[in-house]
Recover the amino acids of this structure.
C-alpha cells in the first residue's frame, strides 16, 4: 500500500510515517518502480503499535525499545513491565504537576474581580517577583 493509505489506516500523518522511517522505527519493504514507498500489512501493524505507544506518552526511545521487544519472541515480559511501569510513574508525576498548575491558576482566577476595573490580580501576580 502507498503512504497515503498507510497513513489513513494507521491514524498517522504521512509526515509522521516519513519521520518514523527516518529514525528507523519502521522500514517499509521498499519502493515501487515509481519510487513510492510500499507499506505491507506488517508495516501497518507496526505503525499502529507506534501510534498507540505514543498516545500512552511513551518517549520515542522507549517506543523503539518496545518495538524491539515486540520483535523478539524470546523476550522477557519483565522488561516490558519495567518500561510500562516507568511510563506510569512519569504520567503520575506529570498529573501531579498539572494539578498544582491548575490549583495555582484557579487561585489567580478567584482573586480576579472580573469587572470593569483596570486592576487585575492575575496580571499583578504574574508580574510579581519570585519569592526567594
Amino acid at each position: 500500500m502507498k503512504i497515503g493509505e498507510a497513513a489513513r489506516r494507521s491514524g498517522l500523518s504521512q509526515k509522521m510515517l516519513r519521520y518514523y522511517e527516518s529514525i528507523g522505527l519502521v522500514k517499509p519493504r521498499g519502493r515501487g518502480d515509481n519510487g513510492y514507498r510500499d507499506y505491507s500489512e506488517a508495516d501497518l501493524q507496526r505503525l499502529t503499535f507506534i501510534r498507540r505507544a505514543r498516545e500512552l506518552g511513551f518517549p520515542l526511545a522507549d517506543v523503539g525499545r518496545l518495538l524491539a521487544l515486540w520483535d523478539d519472541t524470546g523476550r522477557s515480559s519483565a522488561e516490558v513491565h519495567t518500561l510500562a511501569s516507568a511510563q506510569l510513574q512519569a504520567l503520575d508525576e506529570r498529573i501531579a504537576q498539572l494539578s498544582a498548575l491548575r490549583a495555582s491558576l484557579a487561585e489567580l482566577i478567584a482573586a480576579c474581580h472580573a469587572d470593569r476595573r483596570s486592576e487585575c490580580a492575575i496580571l499583578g501576580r504574574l508580574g510579581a517577583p519570585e519569592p526567594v
User: Anything to note?
Assistant: The mean pLDDT is 91. The longest strand covers residues 30-31.
